[in-house]
Amino acid sequence: MTGAPLFGLAGAALVGCGVYGLLTAPRALGRILAFNILGGGVFLIFGVVARRGAGAGFNADPVPQALVITGIVVAFCATALAAALLVRLSAVEAEAVRDGEKEKET
To answer: Per-residue pLDDT averaged across 65-78, rounded?
Structure first.
């Protein structure tokens, strides 16, 4: 088996694992990680499709490579934002629990 079908199958496996994780993860952190795995699979498949065109004797098109790199940067930023929001949400929930305990004591 050559490189392109192997990477294509690996990308499809990552997409499948990501979709399964999105559907079954009970907590937000698990869904964030599953969404990252899904995105990695999509980037890998897109790279394989772009590479197969270059392997057929055509000139390599830099646009798919630029889109994949841009997508990776955007996915990283979105993950950082989601993680920051998750940390803030857990802090707010913990504060609400403490306030509820203080009200019960008084």
So the answer is: 92
